[in-house]
Amino acid sequence: MDSDKMMKGIIPGIIAGYVFLAFMGGGMPGMVGGMISADAFIGFILHIIISAVIGALYTGLFKEYVKMDNPLLDIALGGLIYGVIWWILGGLIIMPAIAGGEMLQISLTDPSLFGHVIYGHVLAFLVVLRNAAMGMDS
């Protein structure tokens, strides 16, 4: 895992995290904060930190192993796959484990699924856009 590549995913991850929160609505920070017995403000900060870390993992790890060599595929397919991975890990395993709920309660109508897919697409789009504008590799 290349730390320079990871750094390139932090800002796109944060921006995608804001889009995720906008899609999910005002209750998400409270839910995240509630997992650690904190208020919505702390939940918001925690969610943005998590979004930055997940963005860093996208550019530092995921893109290393999923090389599509096509910007549209990176956005469409790479963003979809990454979003679903984090829906499963975050929404279906980690959150229920911390909050004491049932894990792997899969519902294809779960708004969290769509929020995570949107996060993945926005993240991938921002990384592709930044790379094209600045002549960079991830």
In short:
The chain is mostly helical and about 140 residues long. It has six helices and no strands.
Portion of residues in helices?
over 70%
Report the structural category. mainly alpha
Pick out the low-confidence regions: none
What is the number of helices? 6
Q: State the total count of DSSP E strands.
A: 0
Q: Would you list the SSEs in sequence order as H and E? A: HHHHHH
Instruction: Determine the N-to-C terminus distance.
Output: 12 Å
Overall 3D geometry?
globular
Q: What composes the largest sheet?
A: none
Beta-strand residue fraction: under 5%
Q: What does the average pLDDT come to?
A: 93
**Rg measurement, Å:** 15 Å
Describe the 3D structure.
With 138 residues, this protein is mostly helical. The protein is 78% helix and 0% strand. It contains 6 helices and no strands. It is globular and about 45 Å long. 30% of the residues are buried.
Task: Present the secondary structure layout.
Blueprint: H1 3-7, H2 10-24, H3 27-35, H4 40-65, H5 71-99, H6 111-134
Helix pairs in contact: 2-4, 2-6, 3-4, 5-6
Protein traits:
0% strand, 78% helix, 138 residues
